[in-house]
Amino acid sequence: MSEASRIRVLDPRLANQIAAGEVVERPASVVKEIVENAIDAGGRRIEIELESGGTRLIRVRDDGSGIGEEDLPLALSRHATSKIASLDDLEDVASLGFRGEALASISAVSRLELISNAADDPTGGWRVVAEGREMAPRVTPAPHPRGTSVLVRDLFFNTPARRKFLRTEKTEFGHVEEAFRRLALSRFDIAWLLRHNQKVVHQLPAAADDQRGHERRIAALLGKRFIDESLHLDLEASGLRLWGWVGLPTHSRAQADQQYFFVNGRVVRDRLVAHAIRQAYRDVLFHGRHPVFVLYLELDPRVVDVNVHPTKHEVRFRDGRLVHDFLFSSLHRALAEVRPNPQGVADAAGQASEGVDGGETQRPEGMPPEGDDAALPAWQQQRMPLSGQHERGAAGGYAPRQDGSPRPPAQRIREFMAGYHALHPDHESTLLTPRQAADETAGEAALEGPGGSAAALASRERPAPDVATLAADDGTQAPPLGYAVAQLHGVYILAQSERGMVIVDMHAAHERIVYERMKQQIHAGALDAQPLLVPVSIAVGAAEAETAEREREAFSRLGVELDAAGPETLLVRQVPALLADADIEPLIRDMLGDLERYGRSDRFETHINQLLGTMACHGSVRANRALTLPEMNALLRDMERTERSGQCNHGRPTWTEMSMAQLDKLFLRGQ
Prior knowledge:
Layout: H1 12-23, H2 27-40, E1 45-51, E2 57-62, H3 72-75, H4 87-91, H5 102-108, E3 111-117, E4 126-131, E5 136-141, E6 147-153, H6 160-163, H7 169-186, E7 191-196, E8 199-204, H8 211-222, H9 224-228, E9 230-237, E10 240-247, E11 259-263, E12 266-267, H10 271-280, E13 293-298, E14 304-305, E15 316-317, H11 320-336, E16 391-392, E17 398-399, H12 410-423, H13 427-430, H14 441-447, H15 452-460, E18 483-488, E19 492-496, E20 500-505, H16 506-524, E21 529-539, H17 542-550, H18 552-557, E22 561-566, E23 569-576, H19 584-598, H20 603-618, H21 629-641, E24 655-659, H22 660-666
Parallel strand pairs: 1-7, 11-13
Antiparallel strand pairs: 1-2, 2-6, 3-4, 3-6, 4-5, 7-8, 9-10, 10-13, 11-12, 14-15, 16-17, 18-19, 19-20, 20-24, 21-23, 22-23
C-alpha cells in the first residue's frame, strides 16, 4: 500500500481549516459566531468594529462574564465549551452556541486574538493566541475591563483559495450589516454599536421591554414605514407562543429581504415556517411579491432540535404539523381581520398641522349652506358633518377641532343611518347584483359571464344588515370608509371620511366581497363531490402510498376518494365537482408531497379558490358601470365587514386614503 493512501490523523490546524469551511463562509459568519458567544456570556453592551468589510479586521467587545485565566487555553480548542456537558443538556439547550468549534475554526483561517477578564479589576485581564501547526495556545497578561474582546485580523490569509471567493468590501459589509440586524432584533435588551472604517453605522440603546420599545428598535433597523404598515400580534396556544409584526399585504417587497423569524431567540430559516407563512398570504399578496415580517416563536426547547446544521440556521420540530398549523392559522386569522377602522391608515404625522394658512374654503356651487340639510330631497343622500371633521382654522386653513365644539349628537347620526337603511332595506341583496333594466344594457353586458350566477348566489344568502354595524358600536361615529360623494370615470368611488378622502377601486372591492362570500359558502359545508366514471390510476412510491392511507380522512374531507389498488398504485374514484375537468394526477402527487413534507396540504383548496376567484371576477361590477350613491355606500359598508377587503383576489389594493394633512401638503397650504 502506498504511503499516500494510508489512513492518518490530520494535524489540528488542517482539521480546523476543514471545519472552518462549514462555519466560516465570510466575515458575516465570523461576526455571527463571536457575537452569539457574547450574548451567551450575558453581555448587555456589544460593540462591533470592522475594517475593509471585515476582511482586514473584526473586533467584537462585550461586557459579559468573561473567561478566567485557567479556561483561556481551552477557549480556542475544538469541541471545548462551557454551555453543555451531557446529552440531556444538548436536548434542552437554551444557549445560542454549544458546539465548541467556532473560535477554533476562525483561528485556523485568520490571526485571532482573544482578551478577557472575569474579574472587576481592569488590570486582571489575559490574552490568548493559538500558534503553530499544533495550534498550541499561548496566554499572556493584558489589561482589560470585565468582559471579552475578540480580534480577527486578515481573514483567510493562509487559505488563498477561500479568499478569492470573497466579494467587494461593500458587498461583504452588506452581509455583515444584515447579520447585525438579525442579532439586534433577537435581543432588544442589549445595547449595540456597529462601526465600519472608523464610522458609526448603527448605535442602538437597550430597548424597553414593551411593544413601544421594541417598535423603536425595529424602526431604527428596518425603517419607520415597516411599523406603520404592519400588524402586531401576540397569540398563544398548545404550548406555543407567536408574537411580533407582520406586514400588511399592500406593504410587500420585490425580494425576501425583510423576513426575520426567531425560534426561542435564535434566527432560523426553515422550510416548514416559510411554507406556513406563504400559505397565510396566499390570496392577498400580489404575484411576484414577498411579505415582510419580524416574528418570534417561543416553545419548550425540548421539542425543537437546534443541532441540525453547523451554522445552526436550521431547526427541526418534534411536531412539525402542530407548529405549521399554529403559524398558518395565527397569521391567516390576523390578516383576515384587517378591515378599515375608524382611526384609518393615514400617517400618524398626517393629522392637520397647527397654524397652517390659506384662503377661505369655497362651498361648491349648488351646495346649500350648513344647516339646510332639510331642504334636500328625501331621496338624496344628505350631507353630514363627520366626527373629527376638519374645521376652518383661524388662519383660514384646516385644523382639527381644538375649541371644544361639540361633536354631532348621537341621535343625529342614528337618524341618518336609520334613514339610509329605511331607504334601501334590501340593498345588500339587490344593489350589487347585475341589473336587468333595459336601459342599462351596457352594464348588463359587462356583468354577463360564468360568474354572474355565482355573484347572485353570494348575494342571495347574505344575512340582513344590522344598522348598528354600519357605524361604531356607540352609534356616534361615522363609518371607517365614510360616505360616497361621487364616481370617477366609472372606475373609482370617491368618499369623504373623518380623516380626509377615500378612493375605492369598485371592481376590485366588489370582487373581493363576492369571492369571500363564495369561499364561505363552498367551504362551510361539505364540498360537492363527483364520482369518476373511469377511476384515475396513479403509480406512486411506497412512502406516498403509506401517506395516502394515513391521510385518507383528510382527502375525504376535500371530496377526494382514494383506494389502494396495489402496494404502489392508487385509484382516484371521486374528486370535488369543481375540479372534475382538472388534471387530477399532478394535484394528487403535489398534495401527497405536501402532506409528507409539511403535514398538511392546501392544493385542492388553492385550485378551488382559483376557480372561485375567476367566477367572482366575472360576477363583479365592471368599469363604466354607473352606480348611484346608495349603491356606492352599500359597497363601502360591505367592504368594512368583509375579511381581507383591502386587497382584491389578485393581491392588488382595493382602496387608499389621503388625509387632510396630505392634501394640504399637496396644495402647499400653510407653506
